[in-house]
Design a protein that fits this description.
This protein is an alpha+beta fold and 231 residues long. The protein contains 9 helices and 4 strands, in the order βαβαααααααββα. The chain has a 4-stranded mixed beta sheet with strand order 2-1-3-4. α2 crosses α3, α4 packs across α7 and α4 crosses α8.
Length: 231
């Protein structure tokens, strides 16, 4: 995400809470990325990713399928779960995303969040963290990879240009885990109970995978408000 010198000295900040185990986060971040690609002042937008866990109590690796997990976690019958994930996959397909819930391996996302925190430190521009999060989404939802497995996570990290040794150390880092916890605590303080959640310019909150035109409108609004303030 662009963090270089911006027109009028304006920087528009977007804070995003998300979980790589959340398909709506994959859709929402993809829609925001498309909106930023259309936004004429995208170089002035600074994005920071924040950790959130939908189910922190999950084991590192869950033995059942996604449908079995959702049925147990939400108290739904398998037919309802199948209908639900089919609807999500259809919506994702309209945004160019292929979600394979049959191949998906359910896993705790805590290690992945530590890795994202590492990427934020390794590349303060935020570009590496953004690429990593999208790669983690694709690995989890499209490629059927185990995003709770350390070797898999290191491989994903190196695919976006991060150092393998540093990535492996990040997976068990107490310092990075504390940053994950701090993000989760901040979400609670802000009243965030579901993700994705977007905070624009520290003032406006958008919850969920909003339609693309909502992101377009929000970006224009915060920019129009920021420019007079900068003058």
């Amino acid at each position: 995400m662009g963090t270089g010198a911006a027109a009028f000295g304006v920087v528009v900040r977007i804070d995003i809470w998300s979980d790589i185990a959340c398909p709506w986060c994959f859709i929402g971040l993809t829609r925001l990325e498309a909106a930023l690609a259309r936004f004429e002042h995208a170089e002035a937008v600074e994005v920071e990713l924040h950790s959130f866990q939908l189910d922190p109590g999950l084991p590192d690796s869950y033995p059942g399928t996604e449908a079995e997990y959702l049925a147990a976690a939400k108290g739904l019958d398998p037919a309802s779960v199948s209908q639900m994930v089919g609807r999500v996959a259809g919506i994702a397909a309209a945004d160019g995303l292929s979600l394979d819930f049959d191949a998906l391996k359910v896993a705790n996302s805590r290690r992945a969040h530590r890795l994202i925190q590492h990427a934020k430190q390794a590349d303060p521009t935020g570009d590496a963290a953004w690429r990593l999060e999208l790669a983690l989404f694709a690995a989890h939802f499209s490629d059927g990879l185990d995003t709770g497995d350390p070797d898999t996570l290191v491989g994903i990290a190196t695919s976006v240009g991060l150092d393998a040794g540093a990535a492996r150390e990040a997976l068990t880092s107490e310092e990075l885990d504390a940053l994950v916890g701090a993000d989760v605590d901040e979400a609670s303080r802000l009243g965030i109970r579901g993700v994705p959640f977007f905070v624009l310019a520290g003032r406006y909150g958008l919850s969920g995978a909003q339609p693309p035109e909502v992101f377009d409108q929000a970006l224009r609004q915060v920019w129009d408000e920021a420019v007079p303030a900068a003058g």
